[in-house]
Amino acid sequence: MSGRKGPYACGLDAAVDVIGGKWKVLLLWALAQGPRRFGQLRRELSGISEKVLAQQLRELEADGIVHREVFDQVPPKVEYALTGLGASLNDALGPLGAWGRTHLAHLEATHPQRHPDAV
Fold it and tell me: Is 20:56 a contact under the CB 8 Å cutoff?
């Protein structure tokens, strides 16, 4: 959810608006394995901060991609899961992941040239 104003130029524009951000695609991949609690997601996505994780989950929830379920118990329990829309988006990302696996060696070899400021 970007807060963008105006219509999308095409379907790809709309999809990229939903998955834009460093962590959203990885969140979709993690949630495809089944419902996860916040702490589980944080452990699975090493390097993500709590603030960014919460923000990305809120945006995915607002877009209808992720469902947040709060269980009425003590201590509080919250689980995140993909909606049907989220599962279909994850399916659509499958070919992109396959492309990445196919070209992984090339992408790793050219990473320094493509990202000279990366440490």
Answer: no
pTM given for the model? 0.84
Is residue 45 within 8 Å of residue 26, measured between CB atoms? yes
Can you tell me the distance from the alpha carbon of 31 to that of 104, in angstroms, rounded to the nearest whole number? Answer: 23
pLDDT digits (tens, 9 = 90+) for 42-89: 999 999 999 999 999 999 999 999 999 999 998 889 999 999 999 999
Q: What does residue 92 show for φ and ψ, rounded to 5 degrees? A: -65, -30
What six digits make up the tokens of 17? 């608006």
What span, in angstroms and rounded, lies between the C-alpha atoms of 20 and 23? 8
Sequence letter at residue 46: S
Residue 65 CA to residue 81 CA, distance in Å, equals 9
The residue with tokens 């399916």 is: 91
